[in-house]
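Researcher: Going back to the complex we discussed earlier. I've cleaned up the inputs and rechecked each line, so this should be the final set. Can you rerun the prediction on the complete assembly and write out the structure?
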Amino acid sequence: MIDFASLLTTDLVGLATTRHAYLLFVLLSTIGLYMLIANQNLVKKVIGVNMFQTGIFLFFITSAYRVGGRAPIVEGAGPYVSPLPQVIVLTAIVVGISLTAVGLALSIRLYNEYGTLRADALREVIGDE
Amino acid sequence: MSDVLLALLVTVPLLTAIFPLLFGLRYENAGWPIALAGSLVVTAMASSLAWEIFTAPTEAGQRLVHEMAGYPAPYGIELVGDGLSALIALLIGVVSVAVLIYGRSTGPQTNAFYSGLLLLMGGLLGMTLTGDLFNLFVFLEIVGLVTYALVASDDSGMAAYGALKYLFLGTVGASLYLIGVGYLLVATGSLNMLDLQARIAELGYTDPLVQAAFGFILIGLMLKIAVFPLHTWQPDAYTYAPDTVSAYISALVSTTAAYALIRISFDVFTVDFFAANPLITDAVVLVASISIVVGSLLAAMQTEIKRVFAYSSVAQFGMIVVAIGLNSRTALLGAVIHLVGHGLMKATLFMGAGILSSAYGATTISDYAGLAKRSPITSGGLAVTGLALVGIPPSIGILGKWYIALGAVESGSWSVAIVIFISTLLTLTYVARIIETLYFNAPPEASHEEAAASESVDHVAAADSPVADGGHTNRVATERIVVVAVLAVSTVALFASVDLFTELLDPVFGRFFQ
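Model: Rerun complete. Updated structure for the full complex:
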């Protein structure tokens, strides 16, 4: 069970100053997710998905960080930041771009077919329950 | 230790995917033979993989490993083939061949479509064989992207709408999965499944980071599997996609995602994790049980035939997820059998529905009135497979359900057994409705007269009945009917295969339930 008392006594100021990147990850992701759900414009929904994913990329990059670490191109003395999350993010960015491309292409097709980019209008035309 | 067959299984379809487009520049109809050749090769390799594992004398021989590019395990990516993944790989191969033969004369016949199908096959096989969590994400997204494109390959605006809806929800699912993988990476510093298993055990199963990671992975994959209430993309995607694509993705895409959930639950988190977190286990069982009942109810309420089958998938996958939460060896055996069986049955049902829709334009249940007289083989296939889906013996449908229910009773979850029973009754209501309409309802009077009249004057379209074009019959290629008949017979014949399943899966489950 969650210990609510200890949750309250957590050093919130300390959290905001030392872990701000993680807070930003949560903020970015939730804003993106909210945009995907609440915004009726298809293109803005695609942007929302992008923001959601960008938040996750930020989380990975942050997790690789170490104080005084250098880019993980191994020559000379360390310390280096962890290379694995960086590789993961590179791959995930490529995946994200492909998704954006497919999403936008489908939006264009829908616009050509129905003349609107609004999800609520489309639902009405298609008769989706 | 290195088994090249595993690497070939993934790379052959991915590389072959280039050729339909490449040869398409010169020859217009190059796509189909290339895609068929590719899927035949995959089926042959998957069979030989399964045979190799089946006949392996030692424990080590039953778990084949290939280290990609020769990097050793915790650092490099490894492909793993055991009884479970060989079974799913074989299913992918067989369904691909069946769908391609079925789709020769129908569906989108562009070369891009065949390239997409091969890419999808490669992605699915990658998901099945990989032993690395991030690699699984990449293949999950390859599968996702190609599926969106294939759903949209029907020219209608509705298909694009279904595909876009699928894209939004599918991406969120994959991203949530990625967050879960990220948490595991932060907690343990590893991505290799077997390595993670040891490190999570070291860390403790009640570590909040591990719990959160499982939560994200679970929700993400449930979105991909389409378990209620995360199923909203699925009926639209299956309904608006071309018939060939509906059959293919309904049989394989959710199936592989469910396989991935089984693999991660038992190979990475292990049964001890479930034992240490009863709250998570109960939540999985509860959500899946609701999915079984609501999915069956929604399916029984539909009038459009493809939607009936789509919602029925929501219920069937609920059963598979429930087996993960039940934490019993018997139930998991049932889940894997049901995974394979459901794939074959849904492919058959969607193909059968596709034949009736292209022959008579029948897309709703009421359109099916009396069609059994006009196309007996397809209707017979639909009826047999439908009854198999209900779980009437002898069929593969009863095997899966039986073992899941048996596992539920063994582990004392009577409520789950009751839920499965209720869902069986609900499945019977909608399958019986289809069979009744096919065999015992007389075709509407109007279509008889029109059929006679249409010989002289073509005034069929003027009639305002739902089967306005009932008089028109488009010829359906014979091989489509043959595929449906063969698959329908196979769902019955596989009733005898339970010993094969147990023998193939025994070493895998031996590791899962030590």
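Model: Worth noting: The mean pLDDT of chain A is 83.
Researcher: Good, that matches what I expected from the previous run.
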